[in-house]
Amino acid sequence: MTQQPASADPFAQTDPFELAQRAAQALRERTGVETHEIALTLGSGWGGAADLLGETVAEIPAPEIPGFSKPALEGHVGTLRSIRLADGRHALVIGARTHYYEGRGVRAVVHGVRTAAAAGASTMVLTNGCGGLNPDWAPGTPVLISDHLNLTGRSPLEGATFQDLTDLYSSRLRDLARTVDPSLPEGVYAQFPGPHYETPAEVRMAGVLGADLVGMSTALEAIAARHAGLEVLGLSLVTNLAAGIQQTPLSHQEVVEAGQAAGPRIAELLARIAGEIR
């Protein structure tokens, strides 16, 4: 992975929590909103939900907020958006996820969730597009994340920071999501470092370890979110069957197309769930 020079990396010499506070203050100044009660990171396929949540107060290009940069991945909108919900609360929609494989370091990967906490959020909704191990989950299937396997070999926590992760993906929020759609399945998500797709053997290994879904995001963010005091809801969109389960080669274009096809349906689902979160 290519590393940025230290001089170009805002995380190299700055405390990451201080940088998150600076980002949150910039959001307050740019949006005029003092507190964002809920935050959502919209991964591949989920971007359309932002248009259904409520009234957009402000939309800011990510690089204009401290610590954020333009997304490296197609399917991410590259903005931070403040939205007023129907009940008057505000949602912060993060369309500028940094992936671990970009080489910017774990601090950059979790900057979005730390900024959400600094902006006043109590709930973090993390979404992604992923590969599925269950052949019954066709591409386009949304799945609640019940737990994860962090296979990156890294943690966003530094030093003697011992965080309990027993109910990391809130059972309360999963139950709430099922009041919106009782048919939602749930499964364990495994985060691999990427950017290459998993081999069939790695997918079999993940299955033996207990994974139902494989991807390249979310787990590190969820750990940091819990450490920051956020209640976490995770949702995956199965964009393809994982290597060795489907017989055709994997491609990013396939992921993008599956996300686009499922977009309107899952956007409505996510907007309805977000509207119920208290």
UniProtKB/TrEMBL annotation:
Catalytic activity: a purine 2'-deoxy-D-ribonucleoside + phosphate = a purine nucleobase + 2-deoxy-alpha-D-ribose 1-phosphate
A GO term, aspect molecular function: purine-nucleoside phosphorylase activity
Keyword Lipoprotein listed: no
A Gene Ontology biological process term: nucleoside metabolic process
Domain Nucleoside phosphorylase: 38-273
One Pfam entry name: PNP_UDP_1
Sorted UniProt keywords: Glycosyltransferase, Transferase
EC number, UniProt record: 2.4.2.1
Top-rank taxon, per record: Bacteria
Enzyme class: transferase
Gene Ontology cellular-component terms listed: cytoplasm
InterPro entries per record: Nucleoside_phosphorylase_d, Nucleoside_phosphorylase_sf, PUNP, Purine_phosphorylase
Pathway: Purine metabolism; purine nucleoside salvage
Coiled-coil region(s): none
Binding site for a purine D-ribonucleoside: E198, N240
Record: residues binding phosphate: S44, H76, R97, T98, H99, G129, S217
SUPFAM superfamilies referenced in this protein's UniProt entry, alphabetically: Purine and uridine phosphorylases (SSF53167)
Function: The purine nucleoside phosphorylases catalyze the phosphorolytic breakdown of the N-glycosidic bond in the beta-(deoxy)ribonucleoside molecules, with the formation of the corresponding free purine bases and pentose-1-phosphate. Cleaves guanosine, inosine, 2'-deoxyguanosine and 2'-deoxyinosine.
Subunit structure as annotated in this protein's UniProt entry: Homotrimer.
Family the UniProt entry places it in: Belongs to the PNP/MTAP phosphorylase family.
Protein name (record): Purine nucleoside phosphorylase
Origin species: Kocuria palustris PEL
The organism's taxonomic lineage, starting at the top: Bacteria, Bacillati, Actinomycetota, Actinomycetes, Micrococcales
